[in-house]
Specification:
Elements (H helix, E strand, L loop, with lengths): L6 H15 L6 E12 L3 E13 L5 E12 L3 E13 L2 E10 L4 E9 L7 E17 L12 E17 L4 E15 L9 H4 L9 E13 L10 E13 L7 E14 L6 E13 L9 E3 L13 E3 L1 E18 L2 E17 L11 E12 L3 E10 L2 E7 L5
Antiparallel strand pairs: 1-2, 2-3, 3-4, 4-5, 5-6, 6-7, 7-8, 8-9, 9-10, 10-11, 11-12, 12-13, 13-16, 14-15, 16-17, 17-18, 18-19, 19-20
Length: about 400
Amino acid sequence: MRCTWHWPWLIAGVLLVTGICHASETETSYFFLPIIATSENGGNEYGALPVLVSRDENDEIRTIVAPMYVFNEFLGSRASLNLIGFPTDDSDYRLIASYTETIERKLVARYRNYFFGHPRVTLEVEGGFFKDATARFFGLSNKSRQSDETNYTNQEGLMRMTLGYQLTDHFEIQLTERFRDVDIQRGGIDSLPFIDDTFPLIAGIDGATIVGHRVGALYDSRDDRDTPTHGTLMTAFAELNQNIGKDIGATFQRYHAEYTGLYPSQLSERFTFVTHAKIQAVFGDGVPFFEQSSLGGETTLRGFGVDRFIGKHSALLNVEERIQILKKRIAGTMTELEIAPFIDVGTVFDTFGSDTFDRWQINPGIGFRGIARPNVAARVDIGFGTEGAAVFAGLDFPF
C-alpha cells in the first residue's frame, strides 16, 4: 500500500516557521507554506497549504489542521484535507481526505490508544479507501528488471484492528484482524505499459479480498514511542490469511520478525547509532503479488521506489547514525535538527537454499530530520541505488 502523506512539509513549517508566525500569548499558531514534494513513483508535486497548529498549556502540539492544493505532474490537480491530533499523551489520530483530477481518491484514518480503558490495554484501528494511480510492478524476484516496469491503479479498501495486552511494562501480546479488498485497474502513467498487458498470469492480477488473523508479541524498552533516543523494539507475529474473493478458499501464512535498537554514544548525546533488521516469510500457493514480501520505499530500501522488489520472503538490514546538529527553543517548543547517514541492505527470495542470499541490494544515503519532542519527527531521506536516487518524506522515523 502506498499512502503519501504531505505532513512532513507541514511539520517542517511547524518547526521552522512558527517562531515568526506564532500568535503571541495564545495557544494557536498559523502560517502558509509552499509545497514542493517528490516521490519515486508519484513524481513531482507543487502547491500550497495554510496550516493551523494548536498547543496545550505545556506548549506541546495537540492538533494540526491543513487543507492543501497541489498539482501533480502525472495526475493534475489535487485538493485534500490533512488532520493529525494528540488528544492525550497516550493517544493519537491521523486522517487524510483527498480528491485528484485524474483517478485518485483517498479517505484514510488511523486511531491509536495506549491506555484503552485499562492501563495495560492498547488499541489501534485503521481503515479507509484509496486509489493509487502510480503503483508500479517489475515482476517477481530480486532479479526483476527495470526495463519491465509497469503501472497500474491500486484500488483498495482496508480495515485493521489490533488489540494488545501488556503483560509487563515492556512486553505485550497482540491480536489483529484485517480486511483488504484490492482491485487492479489501469494506471495514470501513460508512458508505462499496463501491468495486465505485460504480466497477465501473475497471481492477484484480477484482485483479491483478503481476511487476515494475526497473533503477535512486542517487546519495547524505548524511552518514547514516537521520538525515542535509546532502547529496543522487537516484534514478531504469525498470520493466517484467507482469500474470500475471486480465488475463494485459498489460504496462505505469513511469519514476521523485526528488531530495532537505539544506542546513544557514550562520548556525546548528539550521536545515536540505530540498527534495524527484519525478516518475513510467506507460504502458500497463489499468493497475490501485493500480499507477498516486498522491499523498496521509505522504511526498507530507500534507494528504490515502493515495492520495487517482490518475492515470497525478504530479509533486510538498516543502519544509520543520527547526529544532532541543532537544538534550539522556537516559540516555546524545543526543536532539534538531525542528519542521518545510512546504509540499507536487503533481498527478496522464494526458496531457502544455497543461493538464497546471492544478490543483495545495497543503498547508501543521507537523512534530514526535524524533531519536536515528544510526538513530532519530520524527515526527508535520500537513498542511492543501482537505478538512481530516490527521495522519501515522512512524519515519523523510518524505524
